[in-house]
Amino acid sequence: MTVALWIVQVLLALILVITGSFKFFQSREKVIASGGTWAVDFNAATIKIIAGAELISGLLVIVPGLLGHGLLLSFIGAACIALIMVGSIFVHIGREEYQHATINTVFLLMTLFVVFAVKPF
C-alpha cells in the first residue's frame, strides 16, 4: 500500500507541477494554441490562479512526504487537487470535450486514493 501511495503521489505531483508551471508561465494565447481550448472561456488572470493552485497543490502532495512529516499538508494538497479536477471535469463536459473529462476523472480517482490513504487524522 505504501509503495502504491508513493507512486500515485509522485505521478500526481509531476502532472500538476508540470501542467501548472506551463499554464502559469505561458501566455493565455500559448495555452490555447497548445491545445488548451478550455482557456478560451477564461481570462488570463483566472488561468494564472488555476495554474498557481495546480502548482502549489502538486508540491503539497509530495514535499511533506519527502521531508518525513506533514501528512496534513499532503492531505490538503490532494483535497485541493480533487476540487480542481472536479471543476475541470465540469468545464470539459460543458465544452463537450469528453476525452479530456475522462482523463481528468482518472486524475480525480488517483487523487481520492491519496486523500483516503494518507489519513492525517
In short:
With 121 residues, the chain is mostly helical. It has five helices and no strands.
Percent of residues in beta strands: under 5%
Q: From the structure provided, what is the oligomeric state, counting identical versus distinct chains?
A: single chain
Count of distinct structural domains: 1
> Which whole number gives the mean pLDDT?
94
In whole angstroms, the N-to-C terminal distance is 18 Å
| Low-confidence runs | none
Helix content: over 70%
Shape: globular
How do the SSEs run, as a string of H and E?
HHHHH
Radius of gyration: 14 Å
Number of helices: 5
Helix/strand-derived class? mainly alpha
Q: Can you summarize the main beta sheet?
A: none
What would you say this structure looks like, in words?
The chain is mainly alpha-helical. The chain has one domain. It contains 5 helices and no strands. α1 packs antiparallel against α3 (44-67). The longest helix has 24 residues, at 2-25.
Any chance you could write out the topology, listing elements then pairs?
Elements: H1 2-25, H2 28-33, H3 44-67, H4 71-94, H5 98-118
Features:
121 residues, mainly alpha, 0% strand, globular
